[in-house]
Design a protein that fits this description.
Blueprint (H helix, E strand, L loop, with lengths): L4 H24 L8 H8 L2 H11 L3 E4 L1 E2 L37 E4 L4 H7 L2 E2 L2 E2 H6 L3 H7 L3 H12 L18 E4 L10 E4 L3 E2 H16 L1 H11 L15 E4 L10 H5 L3 E4 L22 H5 L2 H15 L6 H28 L14 H7 L12 H9 L2 H17 L7 H12 L2 H13 L14
Antiparallel strand pairs: 1-3, 2-8, 4-5, 6-7, 9-10
Helix pairs in contact: 1-6, 3-7, 8-9, 12-13, 14-16, 16-17
């Protein structure tokens, strides 16, 4: 914003006159060069002439945040302008959460909406109306060379946010409800009669957010990545059972300006309680390892991506780097334990006997531990192998190779890194605690000789 009064006045005046010239040019372009209406239009769009007419017409419209007509299009009564800062804070979502970034609405005569467009003009990232409400002297000087005239216009313009009546009123077509404000529901005197209004500012913010989530470029790219089973930098939002409520029919402008901008469309989110769907745990058949399936879990993909990005950043070889790397690896191992839990606890005992189970023996021992507890004579070798506890080290080795493959697409990794990943798994607290619990349940020796080399 220019610093001197003269420069500020020029900035305000230039903004107003550019707006008027654009409106005039649009109208003149539709007329022949010799049309007798041209001089009249040019005179009407002179700055002080147009502002005088706008100050007269501004009484036909009102800037609001909460409107009545969405309740019923023929309702008559009070509309309100309340900024989010004017509202009491609540933990629930409401208009108060919009902060300073909210859209004002306009109700009234649609023919006077050009006045509102003037008041929305931005100077130094603030609308003219905000400068008017502060009584900015440079804006007053830019509006008219006559101070009294400019002050009169300013009073007319800033009244656009004021109620049309000092007394709030409702209407027979508006919704009303009795709200218990006391303790005794049998006492009529303890009720307040409320007339709810539609929060147009909040509805518009919700509409814009949902539209961007549904049709924005970022959401489209994220959905395409999911369909193609590719990693993507961002997620996306879906809104199940979304409904659309139309206000105003073929003339949405009769409801309000923002409703017209939305084409009369207003989104309604589903308020039905969620239905819990338990996904059936499928046995990992027809594969020689569950680790590729583990790697397709969204949280796992994100953890691997974060670890890979950190290692690719070439962090300095110090304790802070090691601690951060270990923390990322711990999270990945936690996810491995979480992945195995439903397979170990939910699938039928002995599912790994299935002829279609092609898992390596170590993974069968890891993921079907209750099979070692059965008295089935066909499982004698399985039970002996499980209790001998050689298989955890083999799982550590397979996990290390899998992680090297996932990270090694862009990183030079080899045996040294693989041993590091294996040792981290075998010494991990959650992994070790799970093994201990399984050993106790399976009456296996608590001493695991294959872990001695990594103590």
């Amino acid at each position: 914003m220019p610093s001197t009064p003269t420069e500020r006045q020029a900035a305000f005046r230039t903004t107003i006159e550019r707006f008027l010239k654009e409106r005039l040019d649009t109208k003149l372009d539709k007329l022949p060069a010799d049309d007798p209406k041209r001089p009249e239009l040019i005179a009407q769009h002179a700055r002080e002439t147009w502002l005088a007419d706008a100050a007269r017409r501004v009484a036909q419209i009102q800037i609001v945040t909460h409107t009545l007509k969405p309740i019923h299009p023929d309702a008559r009564g009070t509309n309100l302008f309340r900024t989010p800062h004017d509202l009491p804070p609540h933990s629930e979502v409401g208009s108060h959460v919009l902060g300073s970034d909210f859209s004002s609405d306009v109700v009234g005569n649609a023919a006077a909406l050009d006045v509102f467009k003037l008041l929305k003009l931005q100077v130094d990232e603030r609308p003219l109306l905000a400068w008017m409400q502060e009584g900015d002297p440079d804006l007053l000087a830019a509006m008219s060379d006559h101070a009294d005239q400019a002050s009169e216009w300013l009073d007319a313009f800033i009244a656009i946010t004021a109620p049309r009546s000092a007394i709030a009123s409702s209407h027979t077509l508006a919704k009303q409800l009795y709200w218990l404000a006391g303790e005794d529901p049998a006492d009529d005197s303890q009720y307040h009669l409320l007339a709810p209004l539609y929060s147009s500012a909040l509805a518009h913010a919700v509409f814009q957010t949902i539209n961007e989530d549904r049709f924005g470029e970022a959401g489209k790219l994220a959905r395409q990545a999911r369909r193609e089973q590719r990693d993507h930098d961002t997620g996306y939002r879906d809104y199940p059972d979304l409904a659309v409520q139309k206000f105003g029919g073929t003339k949405p402008q009769n409801i309000s300006q923002l409703n017209s901008e939305r084409g009369g469309n207003n989104y309604l989110l589903s308020s039905r309680p969620p239905k819990w769907k338990t996904l059936a745990v499928k046995a990992p058949l027809h594969t020689d390892s569950v680790l590729p399936r583990f790697g397709r879990v969204p949280e796992v993909r994100q953890s691997v991506r974060t670890l890979r990005d950190f290692l690719e950043s070439e962090p300095p070889p110090n304790m802070e780097t090691r601690n951060h790397r270990d923390a990322l690896l711990d999270r990945l191992i936690d996810e491995l334990v979480d992945f195995a839990n439903p397979l170990q606890a939910t699938l039928p005992v002995g599912w790994s006997r299935d002829a279609d189970c092609r898992l390596a023996e170590a993974e069968r021992l890891w993921l079907d531990p209750r099979r070692a507890e059965t008295g089935d004579e066909t499982d004698t070798d399985f039970r002996a192998a499980w209790q001998h506890m050689d298989w955890p080290a083999e799982i550590g080795h397979r996990f290390a190779n899998w992680l090297n493959h996932e990270l090694g697409q862009t990183l030079p990794l080899g045996d040294i890194e693989a041993r590091e990943w294996r040792d981290e798994l075998l010494l991990h607290t959650v992994w070790g605690g799970t093994l201990h619990r399984l050993r106790v349940q399976g009456d296996a020796p608590t001493y695991v000789p294959t872990r001695e080399s990594v103590q």
